[in-house]
Structure formats: C-alpha cells, structure tokens
Amino acid sequence: MSFSIISFDAAGTLIELSEPVGATYERIALKHGVRVREEDLKSAFRHAWSQLQTPLWPEGQSAPDDERSWWREVVAQVFANTLQEPLSEATLEPLFNELYAHFEQPEAWKVEEDVIRTLDVLSRTYRLCVLSNFDRRLRTILKGHGLDRFFEHIILSSEVGASKPHPRMFRTAERLMNAVPEACLHVGDDARCDIAGAQACGWTAYAVARPHHDLHDLIEKVSLNQIRACE
User: Fold this and answer.
1) Please, what's the b/e burial string for 61-78 (b: 16 or more CB within 10 A of its CB; e: otherwise)?
2) How many structural domains are present in the chain?
C-alpha cells in the first residue's frame, strides 16, 4: 500500500530554536537578577528534560493546564540544579512566566531551509498533519511562520493526554485523518518518540538527521517509493 498520510514532528524536524536553550535561560534569568552560565543551564536542562516525564492522562482527557505546570517544574529543576538551591517563589514565578511566553513567539524559532519547499511539494499529493509532543503554543509558532496552511490537523500531546511514543498519539492521527497504519508515514528526529513509536504502531518512519538526511531527501524517497530504506 502506498502512503496517503504523512505526519511531521515539530521541534527538531520542522522548526529549531533560534538560539540555544541555555543562552535563552541565561539571558532571561539575568533580567530577574539570577546569574547563571549558559553551559551549566544546558546541562541542567537536559537532565531535567530526561528525568521529568510528561504525565499520561486517562483516555479522552487532555492535560488540564496545557502542560504549563509540567514546564514550570522543568524550569524550577533547571535552576535548582544549576544554583544548588531552589529559586524563591517570588523569583521563579515571573522568571518562568517570561520564559514560557518567550517560547511561544515565532521569533524564538527558525524554519530550516528544506522545510517549506518539502511541505509545498508533498501537500500536492499527500494529506499532511503535525504530530508533536508540544502544547497549544505550537499553533501560534507554526502560524507565525506560515506553516499551518499545509496541515489538516495539528495533533498535540497536551490535548491528546499522552506523548509519543505512546500509541494514543498515532491512533489519534489515524482517527482524525481516517487512515489505516499501513498508509501512514511519520517524519521525525527522535529515535524513540518518532521512529520507534511510529513503527510500533505499524507505521513507516523516516528519520530526520540533518545534514545527512533532511527533508529534501524525503521528497526523493517518497516519490521513488524507497522510503523503507530509511526506516
């Protein structure tokens, strides 16, 4: 069976941060009187990200606060680990609010040069959707870069109540796009969440690994029906 549906991960696949996360945290923290080094923040962010799993909500229930409280805990742990003591609530609250608002701005993200052409070409033949471990801020980001026009649905973990690689994400896409697994291709950059998660649900997966495998390669592989060579 040939593909009729192609879903795309967002961060790391369609969009990238305009500046390193550690640099953003350092710059905004300084505005709130907190002096920390980018290198230390980068390490602390990776640790907090790996340790704090996004919550799994019951079937049919989305995250009640769009995962904002989860992000607040990530930020709290990043600074607590970096400073070796927790920030006071009086400092943490406005610092977190500014960070959270910053990453909703389209300017905080950039679109790789291969993205728009690929979406334009593929959308002429295939039905496209986004399948992302993100919250509702992603809609503002994609719209700000003119990417939302290519997709029938933007499927978010905060609304599904589960994050990739959980099967619920992929089954939600099948339901919304009225598709069977064999007709679905997922494109992403994360080996566990995107590639293994899709394959476990019977989908085909394409791994983005710039500069070696970008979305220009995807166009060629799909057109030649050689996508399985990239699984």
Assistant:
1) ebbeebbbebbbebbbbb
2) 2
